[in-house]
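Kindly draft a polypeptide, keeping tokens residue-aligned:

***
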Amino acid sequence: MPYELHYWPMIQGRGEFVRLALEEAGADYVDVARQDNDAGGIEPMLDRLADPHDPRPPFAPPFLRDGAVMIGQTAAILLYLGPRLGLVGDREADRIWTHQLQLTIADAVDEAHDTHHPLGVSLYYADQKPEALRRAQGFCAERIPKFLGYFERVLEGNGGEHLVGATLSYADLSLFQLVAGLRYAFPKATAAVLRDTPRVARLHEAVAQRPRIAAYLGSERRIPFNEDGIFRRYPELDG
């Protein structure tokens, strides 16, 4: 049976980190909510989230179904998929290290999201613009350099091409997506940081040129960045 990915059909969001792993591996998967209603649509995802009889319900999308196994949370999904897709090393130490890097990427993603929703997700961006500007200024000046500088150091310590070991891992794919999102949302600030983190910049470009990833990025399966997702381009926030 193909993997079933359940995520919102109109945004890249946190589901994109899972999509990239599935696409790079050439895995057989169905993006369920992006099918038409007769084939699936969004209802199975909403039904699963609201099922009062599910003893192990996912908190929110994304979640992945593999037969009888259901996994929620992006990092947990990738921890599960990594060895099955050949996107993590065989040693336990490498798997835990890759997972740790993924969790750090998740921290960066959360902070990027909070630049445009610093007071809460129940408010529109228009309701929190002054707070968003202050949050974004700190993110651009301090946090983007902190995160990308950390990954630059990891790459340097591992030979420069990959974050873990000598081959591509799902952490490399996720770092690509983080950089892509930051370049969309904060193009000026991110360009300045990438000049000081050349290994991160090279990894981003190398992942984009991998045959399956390049094909995916050029296809309709790749949802464009937009102002409903995690990474949103509001020029006034780009320090």
In short: The first helix runs from residue 15 to 25. Strands lie at 3-6, 29-31, 63-66, 69-72. The longest strand covers residues 3-6. The chain has nine helices and four strands.
